[in-house]
Each structure stands twice: as structure tokens, then as C-alpha cells.
Amino acid sequence: MRRELFKYTVRSLQFGILVFLIVAAIYVSIGRIVLSLSDVYRDDLVYWLEERFDVDLKIASINGHWDYFDPEIVLNGVLLGESTSFDHVTFQIGILNSLIERTVVITSIDLRGLKIFLEERSPGKWNIDGFPDSSKFFDPELLLSSLPYLSTAWIDQLEVKLKGIRNDYILSTQDLILQSANNGVRRVSAPLQIRSKDTKFKASITLLGNYSGSQKKKDFEGDFYVDITGTGLEHASYLTEINRRFANISIDSQFWISLNREDKGIVSSIDIEASLLGSDAEKLAVAGDFALDLKVSEDQFKISGNEINIEVDDKAFIIKDLHGALSSNLSQVGFMIPVLDLGQLSSSLLNLGSRVASKKILKAIESISPAGSLRETFVYLDAEKPKSEYQLVSLLDSAEFGSYLGFPKMRNLSGLISMNSDRGFVDIDNEDFYLNFKSHFNEVWPFDAVRGRMLYQNDAEVLRISSGLVEFSHEGLKAFGKVKLNLPRDEGDHTWALLMSVHESKLLESNRYLPNTLSPRLLSWLDAAVIAGEVEESGLLFHGALSKNSPKINKIFESYFRLRDVDLRYHPEWPELSDLNALFYINNAGVFSNNGNAKIHDSNLENAKVNIRIPYGKEAKNFVLSADIKGSLFDGVRVLNETPIADKIMNVSKHWSGTGKLWGTVKLEIPLVPLEDDEIYTDVSISLADNDFSFADQNITIEKINGNFRYESYSGLNSSRFTGNLFGEEIFGSITTELRNQSEEVLVDMEGTIDVIDLYEWSGQPILSRFKGESTYSASLHIPFGNNTEGSYLEATSNLSGIEINLPAPFGKNETTERTLFYREEFLETGSKLNFSLGELSASLLTDNALVTGGRLHVGPTENSEVSYDSLVVTGILEQADYEDWHQFFLDMENISDQSLKSMFRDNSQLISLDIDCLNLYSLPLFGIKANVKRLSGAWSAFLVNEDLSGEIIIPDDGEASVVVNLDRLRFPRAGGATNPLGNLLPQELAGTKFTIKELFYGDEEFGRWSFELRPDETGLSLIDLKGRVKGVSLTEGSRIDWTYDKQSASSFEGNIWIEDLGIALEKWGYASSVEGSNFNLSASLVWDGSPAAIDMAVAEGQIKLLNGKGRFVQADPGAALKLLGVFDFAQIGRRLSFDFSDVVQKGWSFHGIQGSLDYKKGKMSILEPIVIEGSSSTFKLAGSVDLNTRELDNDMIVTLLVSRNLPWYAAYSAIATGPLAGLGVLLAQKILKSQINQASSAKYTVSGTIESPKIELHSLFNNSLGTRTSPIQ
Q1: Could you read off the pLDDT of 948-996 as tens digits, one per residue?
Q2: Which position has the higher pLDDT, 282 or 1115?
Q3: Long-range contacts made by residues 549-555, C-beta under 8 angstroms, separation at least 24?
Q4: Which residue among 165, 188, 209 closes a domain?
Q5: Among the three residues 140, 175, 209, which one is the final residue of a domain in this structure?
């Protein structure tokens, strides 16, 4: 574009100068013509002119004379061909000067009526009409040779007709005068007018000036003024071959020309206005103001421009202080522009549009959008060379160029430009430079400094751009590069090559050197993956096609990066690679690296290989890393827990840890952009030697592990064999992964020997405290993964040979007995699901935080019904169970367990249903017991049923509340010998109980109903509010039993006994009913050693009081196998006393009161207060003792009878007294003299013998006193 503008400027200058030269040539030609018409030389002149112009010549007359030795010739009526003529010409030839100059020199000329007709036979080619194309219109050399000697020249009425292809023109002048003064100074005045035939174009040129000397010699000097004005100049454009793209061209210019021996110059002021035409007939206003100085030396013109102001569509382009030179023949020009604004220049050219440049060039200018400035710009143009060579040298200052055709965008570019039509260079040496290969790189390349040379070469077919070695630096980065571009005419064939070497740079800044022709997915991954690192050195090579439409295979990128201390986050779910040192290769096919080293956590990766392949026409997919690994098992566990492998193995390794070293290989294929269906391919093989591995959540540590392990995405985790120590015993194992259609599973098999003590200490399971010994086992850990994944689970089996089990029957065994144990535990999020079997014991349980929340525990044959885990169900059949053993077992478990078995069953059990063949309950065997336990609100309810027992036991959750026992029936078996079924109990440990028994049996003998409340305390317990009704005998409210324990048990009874019907009670207790009565009340206070159940009258001690009662003594009927209490057989007593008891026997002896107290000591009763039985007719008093052990009696009995016929003295008295008055007197005497009469009517007996056969003997009469017993009967 600059070249076109320069050509336009030069041709404008040529146009002005050419007009001047044409006028001068006309003058010279006319002079020659005049001279040739001299009569003296007429024939020769006509012949010469005809030969010269190849046209016919007619001359009306030739006259000539000599002025001195110079001839003066006058020609009239001259006609050259049919297009050139003049009326008159007079010219003088200076002979001497001609001889000196060796050519004809005219010293004066007078020309009138000159007419010339010129025709444009081809664009820009003018010829005199009628003249051959090869002929010349005039000889400039003749004019130039004569001008120094020309003293007078006058041209009057000059008219030149120009017939152009597009238009016709007329050039005319009046009074063109050249006159020489006496001092050798010549004055010239040349007014010229030119116009088109249609008058659209009009112009005038006025030349005024003085000069002296010869223009061929150094003595030539002069001063000239030229004024050129005109309108419609676009119609005259053919005259000077100016590019015809303007309309409405007008000019108003003045030239001041000064020529002397030392200096020759032109001062000009030129104003031009025009309209620039576009291809669509659009007109663009342009204008220019030129203030130029032109100095002429011997062979050139020196040009200086104070200011050149060109306006295009109101946008100005200004050039100040222009300096230049123009050769004398106008073919060579050179000039210097101090400052040239690139933005103004490009904006002006874009405004001019296709009028001054092709669309391709305009597109380039628009894309480049140059900014900045050119300083000290030197331009040289040589039009004489075949290709019109030019040279431009300039200082580029802070320039900015946009990208174009693959060439980078450059900002803040400074340097030296040197260019010509086919080659050039730019020497760059500046700071803060920016490159942006926008079509190939996404980021700008900043540089603190750039030094180097860019070259270009342009021939007819290809523009070639290249560079020498260019040096770059940026914040410690050192880079060197070369570039080469080949730009033929066809853009599709544009190619380029860029070679660059970078030293010591930050890896985070190196992404900008990766072309966007690489896979976008790869670039995005690199941008996110690189965290930190250094680039020791790198090399980049880009070559191939520039066109965006070219296939990527034609755009080649090669690079290498020697990296140091790189941190790489290659996947967000995998641990970073740190301290990576490697040599990486990056090209269109991908990213490659060999023999690198890095770290994952604290483990070392050696011989690391990285591979990211980019299939042709596709995106990069995977990051592939393979390496040898040496590190710690701790890091290996971290990889399991902190990578997607954790999900694969169901996070079972969450609480694992390990110590010791590992080594092996690792290979990872990780998607650059993780998608939902993409999986990370993993292949890790490691070897362990004497490592320790801990499972924190199971509190297990496997020591001294040896073996090879491999995890591979498609085959899973595998180990053909590994060994180790578990709980101090050697184990052997293997790991396999089973891949099935619906699910996948990792299987860890182990076998070994274990000591139950170690298992108990590890698990803390209280039940294992009852196991002792060691045995072999085999176990399998199943870890499902993949789709439709269930929980992981552990299965273990053992025959328990060598293990003693100390459990209540029937679950215990000795160490030699084998019993198969199967155990399965499925691990859930907060608990587990357990299935196990031990002999006939099986369970399916659900746990949560170590507590059983539901399932089934079964004893006996396998139960096939479905298990519900909403609650705990216990079922089964037991051959035998001892309550005391199981109670003690649960107590032991509670003492050593952190968890309460009671609370576990309370919160989760729904039903406990057991059939027990023999339940031993406190030495009471219960056969065929059925136990059903269910949950109530706030309590447990147990229903126990068998032949001897039926009832409900309610155990409240509140430990302070009493247990409630409601039995419908309880039968104690009759057994010989003294027993103490509660002897092994500690009363302090019993629970508070409210006890009710509707039917109590001892053997088949019924013992009525009972109720009491059991209250334990720190010394023992008490049975308060004791009530009972046994065979007509009742314990009344307020009775109690106290049981204390201090190394030995002791019990006591304090209470009242009520007998509603004594006769019935005696019969129920197996005695003949010799006494009948009701409402008998007794109080007793007894103590004995042992528990309350150990009561035995043979060892009990205490006191018994007879409080009340009424009834009668009757004849006892010893039938029905009833025992007879002889001491109460009044018939026998009567016979012994020789009384007549017939009335007593017939009617019975009634009494209305009974009182007395006894001291009881180990089967011996001593009467403390005589037992007094009062009747309406007699009174009995009894004292002494009874030995229940020997059944012997030792008593005194006083019998007091009323005065009656039964007494001996009553019979004598009856004989004396007769009549009613006698009876009345006796009665009154009895009442008044009661004690005397009682004494007189009493008899004292001694009673001995046995209870069954008492021996009664009369001791004395009329004696109602009993002997005092000072001590109990021994």
C-alpha cells in the first residue's frame, strides 16, 4: 500500500514537470522548423524534416538573413502533414555556439499561429496526427542546447489539439515571452491554458521567472514562479498515466523555484481536492495540502516537506519534516520521513478501500490493524529498474500488528526495518514485547526483551518470511527461536515452521507454548493438572499448513519439556504426583515421557512413563501412567482410601493402616474428562515382606505379611498366596476376585490357628470368656462391588477341636469333642447381619452399634421359616436348662460386659418361645416347660407352663420396681431328706418381687394359696405382707419373714395365724377331729438357720401364743386313716379319771376361750403361760412341756368342774337336801364361794406318755394350782 501511495506522489510531480517540459519542447521544435525553412537550406531542410518526421512537408516561403555570422530564417505557411502548421516563424542560429555545442543553437525565435494536433492511439500513448508512431514530436536536446543562448523568444497564438480515447483537449497560450537583458539575465513569461473539448476539464499554468547561464553548466541560475490551477483534472489523467480513480479533481498550487550555482530549489504550496471513485460508483472525498521544498543539485532534486496533510473522508494523514531527493531524470527518488503514524496510514488506506488497493491487501491491513509509528523512515524508488525497485528503511517504534495468515499478533514491537520490492528484514531489539499466535495458541507470549532479525523474500510466486536466531527473555526465562513462513498465492498452500528453545521457566507459564491444534480436552486437562514445577529446558517445533481449513494432519507440532519438581494433579480423585522429574514429548499424536521419577505421598515412582495418545481426528481420552513404585504400606492404604478404588471395595479399608515397605509396579489409565460411564483403569502390583497391617475398626493387626498382591480393574484384587501372623499364630491366605454378570466380588480366604483367649481379648465378647483352648479355622471375607452391590461379609468355620466351652448345658463341651461352628457376618453401615450355628444352636441376627436389634436365635433342629429383623425372636427346644446356671451365666456376662443383655433384649425382642424338657429352678425340676416371653409396655412378661407350674412373671424395666410373679399353680416335688432349695442364693442379690400363688402343691398335697412382697436390702431380704391359706390355716396381714445373710443364712417369722374352722383344719392336716371350733388366733415368732425355704420345726426356735378361739371337744373318730391326738380325747380322759362323760361324749364339751403361750426350741415346747381352756361347765389348765422330737409329754393338767352330779361330793349333798331351795342354795354358794368351790371341785392330773398315747393320772383333788416350771423340759 505504501508503494502505491509513493507511486501516486511521484507521478503527480512528474505530471507538473512534464507540462513544463512539453511547452519548452514546443518552443525548441518551432525554432528548428523555422530554421529549416531558410531559403539557403530549403531543400536540405525539407528533406531533413521529411526524413525525420516521415511526413510531407510544405513551406510557403523561406526567408533568411544573417545577423553577423548567425543566420536568421523566416518561414511562412509551414504545414507538416495535415496536423501541424504555423503561420510564421523567425529564428536566428548562433553559428559559433552551434560549433561549440556541436548542434544547432538558436539564439532568438518569433513564432506565430502554431497549431498541432495530437492523437491518443493507445492509452497514454500520444502521437502527432499523421506522423508515424515511431517518430518523435521534438528533440529536447536541441531546446536545451539553445536555451542558454536564446536572447529573445516569443510565441503568439499557440494551439495544441489533443484527441484522446475518452475526451479531446486543447492546449493554448498567448504571448509566451522569453527575453534576455543586457546583464545576461533572461526573463520568461509563459501563460498556458488547457481545457477539454466538452469543457469539463479546465486548467491554467502560469510561469514567470528570470534565469541566466546554461542549464547544462554550473553557472545556470534563476528564480521562477509557477501557478497551476484547474478543475475536472480527472478528465486529463491520460496525459500522465495517473491511476484514473478520481473525480472532481481540482488543484490550486504555487511553486517558487530558485536555481543558482550553489543551490537549486523549489518551494511549493499545493492544494488538491478530489473525489475518489469506488467500484460501486461511491465517491470518497479526498484532499491534500502539500508544503514542499525542492532543491536541485547537479543530478538530483532535493525535496523537503514542511507538512503534508492528506485528508480522506475527514480523516487526516499528516507527514511533517519530510526530506528527500529526486533524480534529475525523475526516475529515482528517495526521501526521509521523521514520523509516520501507522494507525493514520492504515485508516486512510482502508477508507480509500478498493480504489487504491485490492480487497486482499485491504483485508490484510484490516486484520493487521497496525498501530504505533515509523521513525526516520527512508524510502528509495528506482523507476529505471525493470521492476521499479524500491528500498524502505525505518525504525519501528512501539508498533502493534494483528495476526494475519498465521503470522502472530505483535505488540510493543520496536526495531529496524529494511525492505524492498522482493526482500527485507526487521532487526528487533526492544523490551516488553508480546507475541500472540492467535490462530495457533490461546495465550499471549510476553517477553521482557527480544533480539533478533526477521527476513522476508518475495518473488513472483511465493512470499517467504524467516528469521535468524531470535533471543527472548521473560522473568528469568531464556528462549531462542526461529520462524519460517511460505506464503504462495493460494492460501491453501501457506505453510510455516517455528522452532523455539526455552530455558528455566515456570511450568505453569508453559501452557501458553502449547498450540490449540492439540486436543482441546488435553489442553484443558493440562491447564487443570499442572500445579507447580520448573522447566529446565524445552524445545518447540511447529510446521505445516497455516490455513484454518487445512486438515490437522497437515499441522505438525513437536515439543519436548525437561521438567523438574513438578506437582501434577492428573485426576481430582487420585493423589497428586509430586517432585516429578522427567523429559516429556508433546506432539500431534499426544504426550509421552519415559524414565521419569516422582512421588505419590511419600512413596517413590521410578522409571515412570506417561502416555496421552490423541487418535487422528479424535479427542485425547486417557492419561496413562506406569511406573515402578517403592514406598510405605501406609501410602498404599491411603491410595485405597483416597481414590475411586475405595468405592470399588465398598470402603472396607476406611480404617486400615499399615507399616513397613512395599515395592512393585503401578499403571493408571485415567480419563482426562471424567464422564459418568468412564472408569479409571488401574493395575497395581505390590510385594510385601514382614509388613504389619492393622484393621482399626476391627482392632485386628496382621503381622509379618509376606506375599504378592495385584489389583487390576478387569480382574480385581488377587494374590495367589500370602502369609502372616494373626494373634501370634501363622496364617495362610489368598485373594481372588470373582467377576459375574450381575455382581462382582473380592474373596479373601484365610486359614490358621487361633487361641480363644486372644480372640476374647480382641473381640471383647463376654461369651468367649467361657471358651478355652485353641483350634484351627478357615475364613473367607467377601467384598462385593459393582452394580447391584450387597454388603461385604465374612464367613468362618471351625470344628472347635481343642477348645473347651464352659456354657450351661447343653452348650458346653470338653476340648476333645468336635463341634462344627459356622459364622457369617454381613457388614452394614452402622452394624452387621450375623448368621451362625454351633451344634443345634443357630442364629440370624441384625446388630446396630454392637447391639442386637432383631432377628432369630434358635435351638434345636433347623428352623426354615422366614426371619424378620424388626425384632428379636428366640425359639427352640432345650433338653435341659438350669435356671441358676443360666442366671449365674448372665450375671457373669453382665459383670464383664459393657453392654446390658437385659437392655438388649428389652429394646429389641418381640418373642422368646422355648420348650425345655427339664428346667431346674432352684433345685426344683420343671419338666416339659414351655416358656413364652413377650414384651409389655415398660416390662417383660414370661408365661411358664408345664405339669407343675403355670403362671406369669412380669419383670419391669425400672430396676427399682418390683418383679411381679402371678402363678396359677406351683407344685414342689416331694423328696426325701432335708433340703434347702434357696441355699445357694444371696438374698441381697434378689430382686424386689410381689409374689402370688393361687395353688401351691407339695407333691400331690395342696398347700393353698400364698402372697407376699419380697424386699431385699443390704443385709438380706424380707417377705412382707405375707399371706397364706393352707389347709384351713391362714397367715393374716402383717406377717413377715426376714432372711439375713452374713456368711451364713438365717431366717425368722413374725406373724399371726388364723384358723377359721379347727375341725376342718385338723382333718386337712391328717388328724382326727377331737376338737371343733372357729376363729382361732395364734401369734408366732420363730427363727431358724438357713433360707426361708429351709424352715424345719426340728431346728426352729421361738414363741407361740394362743390368743383366742371357741369350740368344743368331741369324741374323735380315728377312722379314715386320721391320726388321733390322745391328749384331746375326752372319752379316754374320762375313763382315766373315772368320771361319767357320757353327756360330754354325746354332746361334746364346749369352750369359749383359749389362751396361753409356748416357748419353742428345736422341737421342744415349754408352756410359759398355762394353756387355759374355758368352757361353760369346766376349765382345763395345762402346763409343762411337749417334746416333738420324741413325742413325749410331761404336763400337769388341772380340771375344774362345776358342782354337779358328776362330782362325788355332789351326790352326798343331794341326798340331804331336797327340793328346789336346796339347788338354789348350792348355786348361790358356787357363785359366792367360787375360788373355794373351784378348789373344792378341781382335780390335778399328771400327763405323760406320748402325744398319740397320753398317760393321765390323778394327782390330787381340790387342787387348782400348777407347779412352777423354772426351766424348760430338757
Answers
A1: 889 998 878 776 788 899 999 887 776 655 456 566 677 877 778 888 9
A2: 1115
A3: 549/492, 550/492, 552/517, 552/588, 552/616, 552/617, 553/588, 553/616, 555/440, 555/515, 555/517, 555/588
A4: 209
A5: 209
Q: How far, in Å, CA of 47 to CA of 36, rounded?
A: 10
Q: Are 535 and 561 in contact (CB under 8 A)?
A: yes
Nine-digit cell at 988? 441381697
Confidence label for 337 from pLDDT (cuts 50, 70 and 90): confident
Rounded to 5, what percent of the chain is helix, strand, coil? Answer: 20, 55, 25
Q: 784, 740 in Cβ contact below 8 A?
A: no
Distance of CA 781 to the CA centre of its chain: 30
Look up the domain containing 1156 and give its range.
1036-1261
Gap between the Cα atoms of 1065 and 1063, Å rounded: 5
Q: What is the dihedral of CA 543, 548, 549, 554, to 10 degrees?
A: 10
Each residue's pLDDT tens digit, 769-793:
888 999 999 998 887 766 656 777 8
Residue 425 lies inside a defined structural domain of this protein: no
Taking the C-alpha atoms of residue 206 and residue 203, their distance in angstroms, rounded to an integer, is: 10
pLDDT digits (tens, 9 = 90+) for 353-365: 665 566 666 677 7
Cis upstream peptide for 810 (omega within 30°): yes
3-state DSSP assignment of residue 1026: strand
User: Whole-angstrom Cα distance, residue 410 to residue 435?
Assistant: 5
Q: Tell me which DSSP letter residue 234 carries.
A: G
Is residue 453 in some structural domain?
Answer: no
Nearest alpha carbon to residue 642 among 718, 597, 576, 568: 576
Structural domain includes residue 891: no
The dihedral through the CA atoms of 936, 941, 945, 950 has a sign that is negative
**Gap between the Cα atoms of 610 and 627, Å rounded:** 9
Cβ-count burial 1227-1264 (b if 16+ within 10 Å, e if not) = eeebeeeeeebbebbbbbbbbebebeebebeeeeeeeb
Domain count within the chain: 2
Indicate whether 684 pLDDT > 80: yes
- Written as nine digits, the cell of 528 is 487443570
Does any domain span residue 496?
Answer: no
